[in-house]
Design goal:
Radius of gyration: 16 Å
Number of helices: 9
Structural class: alpha/beta
Strand content: 15-25%
Oligomer: single chain
Distance between the termini: 7 Å
Shape: globular
CATH class of the largest domain: Alpha Beta
Strand order of the largest sheet: 5-4-1-6-7-8
Number of domains: 2
Number of strands: 8
């Protein structure tokens, strides 16, 4: 039984596809790159943005940092709200907290944006703490976000689990010595969660609840 449950945000609690892909497209246009199909930008959902700009569009480190700045120009006033709460998530959070579990957010998204999103969807009250990145690039990788929570609250690794939709969540869990539950209703590619070695995999929010409360 896991007493401390860490949740990823994008693709796990919310579906941010429209806002993130629009913001990435806006940033790439600053470099003269036109993206006709927004689905080509789905891989940007989840990983740190600087890593993705370098990986998928071969931007230099400096240009990737500039691209993140352009991304935020669009995302902060508009893209952050081009987002949908995944069906069943509020009920899941309510059931977990009613059962006495401690719930935390563990995201590579800047804490400032993450807090706004939780408030927007009226689910902030379920979270004991929000651990995200900082605008200066601090804690952008999932293992850093998880480690911060473990250290800050003096949580034993055996008592903690992270729920996420991408291999970055599973990799971060392994690096920190905690369990992981992958969810298929996010943006993982076929076989991604299995290849990463998730301890459990849930196809639906209902199945996720059974795993977390078993």
């Amino acid at each position: 039984m896991w007493q401390h449950i860490f949740f990823d945000l994008d693709g796990t609690l919310t579906d941010p596809k429209v806002g993130i892909t629009n913001a990435v497209s806006y940033a790439l246009e600053k470099f003269g790159i036109q993206v006709r199909d927004r689905d080509d930008l789905i891989p940007f959902i989840g990983p740190p943005l600087t890593d993705s700009f370098r990986k998928y569009y071969d931007l230099s480190e400096d240009d990737a940092e500039k691209a993140v700045g352009y991304f935020r120009e669009y995302f902060a006033p508009k893209g952050i709200f081009e987002n949908d709460l995944i069906e069943g998530i509020p009920e899941l959070l309510e059931h977990l907290t009613a059962a006495g579990r401690n719930v935390y957010l563990a995201t590579s998204k800047p804490t400032f944006f993450a807090e706004q999103i939780l408030d927007h969807f009226n689910i902030r009250q379920y979270f004991r703490f929000v651990s995200g990145s900082e605008f200066d690039g601090t804690r952008v990788h999932k293992d850093e976000v998880i480690a911060y929570l473990l250290d800050h609250f003096d949580i034993a690794c055996l008592d903690a689990v992270i729920v996420g939709d991408r291999h970055h969540d599973i990799d971060g869990a392994k690096a920190c010595g905690i369990a992981s539950v992958g969810v298929r209703f996010g943006y993982a590619e076929e076989g991604e969660l299995e290849d990463a070695g998730a301890d459990e995999i849930a196809a639906t929010v209902e199945e996720l609840e059974r795993i977390l409360l078993n």
